[in-house]
Amino acid sequence: MSQTRASQPGALMGFVHRRRRGAELFLLILALAVGVGAYAAVGIGVEGHVPADIVGYGGWLTALVLAAHLVVRVVAPYADPVLLPVVAALNGLGLAVIHRLDLATGDTFARQQLTWMTLGVLLFVITLVVLRDHRILTRFTYTSGLGAIVLLLLPLVPGLGKTINGARIWIGVGPFSFQPGEVAKVLLVVAFAGYLVLHRDALALAGRRVVFVDLPRGRDLGPILGMWLISLGVLVFQKDLGSSLLFFGLFLVMLYVSTERPGWLVVGAALFTAGAGLGYYLFGHVRVRFDIWLSPFAHYGEGTDDRAFQPVEGMFGLAWGGLIGRGFGGGSPERVPYANSDFITAAIGEELGLTGLIAVLLLYGLIVERALRAALISREGFGKLLATGLGAIFAVQVFVVIGGVTSLIPLTGLTTPFLSYGGSSLVANWVIIALLLRVSDLARRPLPDLSAGDVEAEADVLSTQVIKL
Amino acid sequence: MSELTLFLIRIAYLAILWIFVLSAISVVRSDMFGARVPEAARSPQPRGKERKPAKPAPKRRGSPSHVLVVEGANAGERADLELAPVLIGRGNDAAIRLDDDYVSTRHARIAASGDQWFVEDLGSTNGTYIGSVRLTQPTTITLGTQVRIGKTILELRK
């Protein structure tokens, strides 16, 4: 800050953000109570006693969460205090619900999910330690765009790709299968943000006006439109409806935020309507989803094709749960196919009721709010766009999947962030949280004080030279 | 396990969940504006050195008097440092108005601190450079330091 500015009692300048690491620790302890408490409640409800491995399980969860907290304390001291606890609580709750479904079906998905969570926290730590300034990512704008497209194309490679449940979005290496689209979405946000921050003036100002919108010039919009069309085309080709919707929404939000032109929303809505209409007439699987959504009970039960079995059982579960739920072990969420991934919100709604489901939704709301908050207070364009894009991923993804489970919109397969069973999604989401913490850390860090003596001013100059951008 | 115990566990777990949600919201609420720092604590007076805000130190020989555009579309334009802080950008309120597509509306500012001059980027799109280094914080400039903004180069002159 220049001295003239500092000497004026500015409206906003009188505030600096506190570190709030103590608040984070307090919330983390509560989050552990949510996670481990759910595990204990599952044991009591299903097996009649507190599970024997509660100490080992709780200890491992605590160690993971505390490790993440300590790393944040050291390398991102000003980072947002709410994000990590909310994520830890969601992850813990998800583990417990998956464990509860395992007990009913005899699988060991919870154990694998815990392994994936460990990997996720590890990558979270690595991201925070390696990436000291998110603006370094602007160097990899086109690289990450290309990387995203390559990752999306990987499942189509013969021998490497695997088709699971009708969608060819997996790659299999040995016994492991991975969904590269989850990583691609992070790379795509980095690419969009890096591109838009350089070209938003040209996108917003140069170009012709057509009906409602100022259409930008082709050379400004071209590269990003290309990246987006290719990824969307790949997803449509792979019949991954959920991810197509996610990428479409993401692109629209970032374009709207960076150019400040509401016309993009009109264009986007028109494109979406056209795309959905076209999809309905061209693709059989889109039409099936629509029919199931409009009249689920015509596709449920004996004498029908029974294609709505999953969503209808999910709705039965939500209704059976009612206001306060059946309690862990009191319902039968395992009746729903894929209850541990796509339909985990139905399982939560059945056993924790509307009260629990609203709490979960509020937690997602908090994640999005904190992401947008980091974007608002960030002092530079790339951080703003990156945080907005990452927040938009969560917002769109939660809307698409929970909207689908509750039959607000047609059902499309996507994971519920942090809750669902699914390694690739969990790991990618932990990295997203690390990026958000990094943006918020730089945004909340107080500005260096320049009004001190000459020596310190010179030190500032030196530190400026060191930062390479 | 009796029915009542299970019911109590169910209620207790929902309570824990909501206590967590509400505490998270209360942390968000208390975080809304950050901590208020007294103005004095935030900009401490320099030790053993008099300061006159908004008024550069008395003219000395060799201290800069104006900012000059040395290269770019507006080469030759100048702004007096008496009127510091000097705003540079494409907007109408800028002291040096640049007709340069790569310059933001409010691009950068040159201001004084003691007898030092600082250039500060105001969150511009393309950044402010000294040499090949993009400014991330206010940086001292001296006579003849070339500050690049878009396609324009500025200097402090006597």
TrEMBL record, chain A:
GO terms for molecular function: lipid-linked peptidoglycan transporter activity. It holds the Pfam family FTSW_RODA_SPOVE. Keywords: Cell shape, Membrane, Transmembrane, Transmembrane helix. InterPro entries: FtsW/RodA (IPR001182). It is found in: Membrane. The chain crosses the membrane at residues 25-42, 54-75, 82-101, 113-131, 140-158, 178-198, 218-235, 241-257, 264-283, 343-364, 385-406, 418-437. One of its GO terms (biological process) is cell division. One of its GO terms (cellular component) is plasma membrane. It is a multi-pass membrane protein. This is Unannotated protein. The lineage of its organism: unclassified sequences, metagenomes, ecological metagenomes.
UniProtKB/TrEMBL annotation, chain B:
The keyword DNA damage does not apply. Gene3D superfamilies: 2.60.200.20. The keyword Transport does not apply. SUPFAM superfamilies: SMAD/FHA domain (SSF49879). Keywords: Membrane, Transmembrane, Transmembrane helix. Residues 54-63 have a biased composition (Basic residues). InterPro entries: Cell_Proc_Reg/RNA_Proc (IPR050923), FHA_dom (IPR000253), SMAD_FHA_dom_sf (IPR008984). The chain crosses the membrane at residues 6-28. This is Unannotated protein. The lineage of its organism: unclassified sequences, metagenomes, ecological metagenomes.
